[in-house]
Specification:
Elements lengths: L1 E5 L2 E4 L4 E8 L7 E7 L6 E6 L6 E3 L7 E6 L4 E6 L8 E8 L12 E2 L3 E6 L1
Parallel strand pairs: 2-11
Antiparallel strand pairs: 1-3, 3-8, 4-5, 4-9, 5-6, 7-8, 9-10, 9-11
């Protein structure tokens, strides 16, 4: 599985962005998907995950109520809708695929895409 994230950019605080992650390969619908982020000087952290069917999602507490993860298996794409963005959301965002259903542990993801930069100005 190859993953390509897009949709990042510069936005003012309070604004919105939608990240997309397109996967290659016909087995996309077999994988749970996740979003992680890494800010400068900080460790990578979990943001959101979704099961292969889309029936179950989980987002980190610090983005709950602001971020939503979804997927369209017909388009081999997973999305991260980010609303009410804050300067502390500034980071490189990565999408990843896991055969473990869904997970908030990065080491359970087998495939990673190249990140997309999100910058939120105050």
């Amino acid at each position: 599985v190859q993953l390509q994230a897009s949709g990042g950019g510069l936005v003012q605080a309070g604004g919105s962005l939608r990240l997309s992650c397109e996967a290659s390969g016909r087995t996309f619908r077999s994988y749970g998907m996740g979003w992680f982020r890494q800010a400068p000087g900080k460790e990578r952290e979990f943001v959101a995950t979704i099961r292969w069917s889309g029936s179950s999602t989980y987002v980190a507490e610090f983005v709950k109520g602001r971020f939503t993860i979804s997927r369209d298996n017909a388009k081999n794409t997973v999305y991260l809708q980010m609303n009410s963005l804050k300067p502390e959301d500034t980071a490189v965002y990565y999408c990843a695929a896991t055969s473990h259903g869904s997970s908030w542990y990065g080491n359970e993801y087998e495939y990673w895409g190249r990140g997309t930069q999100v910058t939120v100005s105050s």
